[in-house]
Amino acid sequence: MITSTWHRSTAPSVAAAVALVLALASGCSSAAEVASANAPTPQPTVTSQQPTTSIRPTASSLTAPATPAPPTPTAAERPVLPTAQELRAGESDPVEDPYYPDTSNPEIDVLHYFLDLHWDGKVLSGTTTATFRATAATDSVRLDLASALTADSVQLDDRAVEFEQADDGLVMHTTGLERGVRHTLTIAYAGVPESTSAPSMRLDSTEGLGWNTDDKGNVYTFQEPFGAFTWYPVNDHPSDEALYDARIGAVDGDVGVFNGKLTGQTDEGDETVTRWHVDEPVASYLTTIAIGPYTQHTSTTASGMEISYWLMPQDEDLLPGLESEGSTAFEWLEKHAGAYPFSTLGVVVVGGSSAMETQTLITLSRGAAERPDAVLQHEFSHQWYGDAVTPIDWRGMWLNEGFAMYFQQWYEKDLGRPVYAGGVEQWRSYDNQSRQLSGPPGDY
User: Fold this and answer.
1) Per-residue pLDDT tens for 294-322?
2) Integer distance in angstroms from the first to the last C-alpha of the chain?
3) Euclidean distance between CA atoms 332 and 353, whole angstroms
4) Exposed, middle or buried: residue 370 (CB in 10 Å: 0-12, 13-18, 19+)?
5) Does the pLDDT at position 24 exceed 90?
6) Read out DSSP for 72-121?
7) Domains in the chain, ordered, with CATH?
8) What is the number of other CB atoms lying within 10 angstroms of the CB of residue 378?
9) Are the beta carbons of 204 and 223 closer than 8 angstroms?
């Protein structure tokens, strides 16, 4: 089941866990998400994919009440693209999702994204450079892109191409693409980002998925099962993992935080610019961005792993608890799950009311971060199961959560925490509720 449903089988095998995972799978969630654990099994949501006519709006035509026009940033940074050998690490076998067929395109495999983003507190402008290969001969390429963001221009291999936007999609008329041949798309766009509705009854999803902005202009994202398309053009599906580099420009002293390694931070004009590099392929739902008055704090585990904690001033009081629990949880997982599968690890504390295992950079709401003993080890566990090993489609989500819940309960029992006994009873209760709402587990 694991090898046929998941890809990138780089995480260690825990055969003894399977029986308990099966018992937990139907009702699993992180302990910080207790109030929302009775979500039903997601069902397909089909929206029209009929494109508009060939009218192509520009960023300057955006009309948002009391919102200034997009800034005029410096010329888009010329990305340094991975070598042909490096790009092989980004190769995937994309599929159409049975639950969400409108947010995936199995005809292309994106190998690498370079995101050049500018955020002024209200308007996002960006240029995405996507290196991809066609998985079948095609005359057009479709990427997911929210209708709130307007594409200004599209180039295929440095040549302008026609395009259309409709129904949270961007269709580019590329003509004559051959199977397996690599190409590069460069897409300039801008707009006032909006979150998208979650296909769920979870209480921690009421604010919407993808890009969220609080009343101070601070940015955060939660985007499972989709939502990356609310801030960049993307093949928004877990079966299409890709390599990433990002440049994030923010104003008023704010700092942009992203997955992977921080490779530079500079002041450029009125922007603070951070640059990020991710060594390992990432599924789009596991990417994250946070923008605000962040400060980086770094601690080192006994095994020598550096963990970065990105906090805004109002959250600095959480640092001691996060550092203590983070080191304990990480060292326990290395002992029981094997070597950490990635080169960097961090935590960013944001607004909202959820927690997410975003790859190499865990995203925690303040409420979740206030109880690191209840949630941090769970999200760390996902780095092995869910991130290093990722479901091909959303029918495999129970495996993500099943293994993380198994490790969480094992960890709490090992540490003698009273959470364990209550947790088992709690999940049985939620399992019964989920069955009443959604039917038996695995009913697809």
Assistant:
1) 999 999 999 999 999 999 999 999 999 99
2) 15
3) 27
4) middle
5) no
6) -PSSPP---PPPHHHHGGG-------SS-GGG--TTEEEEEEEEEEEE-S
7) 2-43+296-438 (3.30.2010.30), 59-97+100-286 (2.60.40.1730)
8) 27
9) no
